[in-house]
Design brief:
- With 275 residues, the chain is of the alpha+beta class.
- The protein has a single domain, classed as Jelly Rolls (Sandwich), CATH 2.60.120.
- It has 6 helices and 17 strands.
Length: 275
């Protein structure tokens, strides 16, 4: 059964201007005001692909950064209501929005997702996040996306440096996922699927993993930030990467991470902004 018939059969498709769109995609178009047919086709296919790969239900928030403005970039594709509870973004000052994505200034810009892992994810052993960078900048040691609490070790962040690492659980170097990274451009997905399994994927392939037994980890209790790390040393954690996609989700298997990349890369290619 095709992806299109899957959406239509379940009553998920709506007609707009003679073209059928998935209902979740149409809700996003209504919220964002997007009318460009190429953008609508790209978003609609993304929704259909994620559903056909059976990973749509694992998504908590999806930010396609499509439409070219802050008012369209703020919406969560998974829940297109303009509410904090729907995890729509609030941008600080210092962002540049364009048809290719959203770019923070590296000194003051971040986006508040309003998503708190401890109240959103069901288990510390099933959590993850992803982003798609169109920029290859000089590497720094600063975390650029996530949460680093001041008083607890329950953290969740990316640090895009020459050795890319991610922590979800506790501040213990033996649990870090590391790999050599020479170009920051591309899609990154980082997941935790058990106390002894944390992986980071680049463009759908495993780039690094960790099997340290993090039984003491807990879900972070601060809001997740895009473009900076919420919590300790916020002023030193900003990024300048142009972002063309971001998402927060449950843990993914190797196959799901690969399929997720395929769906997002198809989306980016339709928009002509793939890397």
């Amino acid at each position: 059964m095709s992806s299109f018939s899957f959406g239509f059969t379940l009553g998920k498709a709506k007609k707009a201007g003679g073209v059928s769109y998935d209902a979740d995609a149409q809700a996003f178009f209504t919220a964002t005001g997007i009318t460009d047919t190429t953008q609508k086709s790209a978003v609609n296919q993304l929704v259909l692909d994620l559903k056909s790969y059976n990973i749509w239900t694992k998504m908590k928030a999806i930010y396609p950064f499509v439409g070219g403005s802050a008012s369209s970039h703020k919406y969560n594709l998974k829940d297109s209501r303009d509410l904090n509870a729907a995890f729509r973004l609030t941008f600080s000052t210092g962002w540049t929005h364009s048809s290719t994505g959203a770019t923070p200034n590296g000194s003051s810009a971040y986006a508040d997702t309003f998503l708190i892992p401890s109240s959103t994810f069901s288990s510390v052993n099933s959590q993850g996040f992803s982003f798609y960078s169109r920029t290859s900048l000089s590497f720094t040691n600063s975390p650029n996306h996530g949460i680093i609490p001041v008083t607890t070790n329950d953290r969740m962040y990316f640090a895009p440096q020459a050795t890319y690492y991610q922590i979800q659980g506790t501040e213990n170097a033996s649990f870090w996922v590391t790999f050599t990274n020479t170009d920051r451009k591309g899609m990154y997905t980082s997941v935790r699927t058990s106390a002894t399994s944390r992986k980071t994927y680049k463009n759908g392939s495993i780039a690094g993993s960790s099997t340290g037994n993090d039984t003491g980890g807990a879900l972070a209790s601060l809001k997740f930030y895009i473009g900076a790390a919420n919590g300790a040393s916020l002023g030193t954690t900003y990024t300048k990467d142009e972002l063309a996609f971001s998402a927060l989700h449950d843990g993914l298997t190797d196959a799901e991470a690969a399929n997720f990349y395929t769906a997002v890369q198809t989306f980016q290619t339709t928009l002509g902004r793939q890397v």
